[in-house]
Amino acid sequence: MRPVGSKYVLEESLGRGATGTVWRGRVREDAAVPGLLPGQAVAVKVLREELAADPDVVMRFLRERSVLLRLTHPNIVRTRDLVVEGELLALVMDLVDGPDLYRYLRESGPLSPIAGALLMAQIADALAASHADGVVHRDLKPANVLLATLAVDGDERMHPMLTDFGIARLADSPGITRTHEFVGTPVYVAPESADGRPQTAAVDVYGAGIMLYELVTGRPPFQGDNPLAVLQAHLAQEPQRPRTMPEPLWTVVERCLRKDPAQRPTAVSLAGALRVVAAGVGVHSSPAAVDAALAVGDLLVPDPALAAPAGAHDATLAGVGYDPAAATQVMAHQPPVPGTEDRTQLIAPQPPAAPPAERTRVMPAVPPAPEQAPAQPEGPHPWQTQLRAARDRNAQTRIGYFEPDGPGEPQVAPRPYQAGQQHPQQGGGYPQPGPGGRPPVAPPPYQRPAQDGRYAPQQGPYQPQQPQQGGHPQQGRGGRPPVAPPPYQAQQQHQQPAGYGGQPGYEAPPNYGAPQRRAEPPAPQRRPEPEPPREREREREPRRRSPNRMRIPGLGCLKGCLLVLVVLAVGCLALWNFTPLPHYWDNVVGWYDSARNWVTSHT
Ligand SMILES: Nc1ncnc2c1ncn2[C@@H]1O[C@H](COP(=O)(O)OP(=O)(O)OP(=O)(O)O)[C@@H](O)[C@H]1O
Predict the structure, then answer these.
(1) Of 77, 94, 111, which one is at a domain's C-terminal end?
(2) Is the N end or the C end of the chain the one with fewer CB atoms within 10 Å?
(3) For residue 410, which of 477, 361, 459 has the smallest C-alpha distance?
(4) Residues 88 and 105 in one domain
């Protein structure tokens, strides 16, 4: 057990990301921490040494301490303490007893449109609260949503909680990144982050749009063979509506994915709109709820501050907790700086033997959007596509490198959207049937033995300033809300979202409905070990086979037998030559001869 500061001990590593390692820890018995009991289990994110060694990061860490500590919401993992000890920086958080959303999706498959909308509505609630408090997440992705288990009416339901607040911004230190770099995860990065414009609260709404698309289709809308291609797709490609996505839900996704941040809805209006969509896309939705869902576009109100004329952006940045100077330092366009690759290895280390091409893919430049993506001669095999999509989903946070004016390396065209690649369980219409038209099957609830440090949402002092009217539609199996909510009122803009725990308007959706099939066999309950960087994996070519396709039956078996025989022969030789075996053998032969002589002489 390793001590952290004077108040905590680390017990077991839960996993490692690009910015640090998360440990299961405990409050020391003799320590007094406000809001935590002695001996209580906690999660401790120990930031990477490179970050902790950067004075700018330490300064921000201390400066943002109070902001992070006061960020409380039922759908946000609460930060309880920030520890600075020598060269160690750590955030102490509530320990959430459940998988992250990435893992859940990987194990259980996509959600129904209703379940996906209800889940994202809660994430949008969390974003709305944090934006109101001046904090932009900037690294929204399924891996940063933890699924706690809540007991509701005797049922265990999953409750999404957003984590890693402030981390991307901490890592975005001028000491770690340069002006042409940014921190983010390529698949979820907003266009303005990719090409170096200021990042406002709208980057989180964009990330929410990507996640929403992925939750219900099983894959993100923009993909590519390398981070650069993905960034280019964010910048240049228009998302396509999947055939099976209900129209109102697509309206929401499409608005969130607008290239212009000023056209994206606020997180508050997004949360409300998603609940209206969830209420209006079920087969048992009332005509009024259906109409309200079809008119959802009216509810998606953009942030007026973002639409303000040039010059107002600094105020906007300050309003969302950004230090304008820091944002300019990090995001300004600049010509390439020699040695950048080395510096960025601080965050995304590359093996020394990695070929240069691999390094440039980790830190790709983003040239102007291509006029027309050249067609690929031949698409990848379906399993390659699936594997790549799975990897992209859990892409780690990385520092991207944008160099808009620099010479770009030869590009691989982003794969165009192919409707045929839809997840098979996405049937036409909604609610969606499972494969072969079967109704969706509720996933087995994620179960893990209860622990003393388990997340207890009722402890959170979050007090919504204004509970929402109308409420959160209950979702039954098959994704039907039994009661349609009254239409969302657009005047609720910029107000704290409805919370949970006795506040009107919030009810946790049951099990987030119904992944329709298992994407792959269940993974062990152990926390995943850190994954190596994706680029290295991508480099691995599929095994090349000989062009000679002649097959000799039993050849493999014969080879195996021969190998065993050779090993046995070598073993016997070694035994004979390097052990006293020959001496014992002579003795045995001598005893045999004397016994035989004795027998022949007495017969
Ligand atoms: N508060 C928490 N309680 C329980 N487990 C947690 C908590 N925070 C993070 N974890 C788990 O720790 C592991 C590592 O988390 P981390 O945030 O470092 O990873 P990541 O989000 O994949 O990485 P990154 O965002 O840096 O690319 C994940 O498996 C995550 O589920």
Answers:
(1) 94
(2) C
(3) 361
(4) no
